[in-house]
What does this fold into?
Amino acid sequence: MHAVFWASVGTLFPFLMTALGAAVVFLFAGKSSARFQKMSLGFAAGVMIAASVWSLLLPAIAQAEEQGSPGWLVAGGGFLLGVVFLLLLDTLMPHLHAQASSPEGIHTHLGKNTLLFLAVTLHNIPEGMAVGLAFALGAQQGSDYTAFASALALCIGMGVQNFPEGAAISLPLKQEGMSAKKAFGFGALSGVVEPVFGILTVLVAGTVSTAMPWLLSFAAGAMMYVVVEELIPQAHLGEHSNAGTISVMAGFVLMMILDIAMG
It folds into this structure.
């Protein structure tokens, strides 16, 4: 329960930052800049790439080796399982990306706005798992505050990238004809899955003592799937893709510095 408490606290900040970013919809009278959306998605991708390595895979390898398991096996196996998990969700869950002309997943009669909302909800699932597991790992370490510092760095990094990501959710919804209040509500609601999946993953980790390194690498694989499949391609659509590229680098450097400096 101690780990669950810290997972709840840790995932609350990224959720609030998502809601704050979604509130940007009240500041835009018309359409948002395509370059702003590219930069938002690129920045989120950079943060998630760095977090996958420093906050998830490296701790997973270290803990697996402490348990007497091959670090490469646990990190590689968990990573691939995370990729398969997101691949299945991406294949089965109906959703629609903002720039796409047709929805993905199983056929459904859900409205376009709901499908747009579900597309972004997919992004937040691995983020919630990552932050929840990082704080649970910190709780397991007890008096060693290094893991807590690393979890805090991850929490800050995810929160910072969730601000533009929240805006990237609500603004396209408004452009599709949704009212500003409703677009904000959908944008904020998309962040709810972070504490939900963060807590659920910690509960699973608590039932099997050796599960933590597998789950850490699992979350890394899930996040990298989102980055490669959705965030980076959308950040480079159309002309002037260098804005998306620079934002990826900026997000990566910020998260790397946070993790190294605090962890």
Q: What stands out?
A: The chain has a mean pLDDT of 85. The chain is about 80% helix and 0% strand. The first helix runs from residue 2 to 22. The two ends are 24 Å apart (CA to CA).
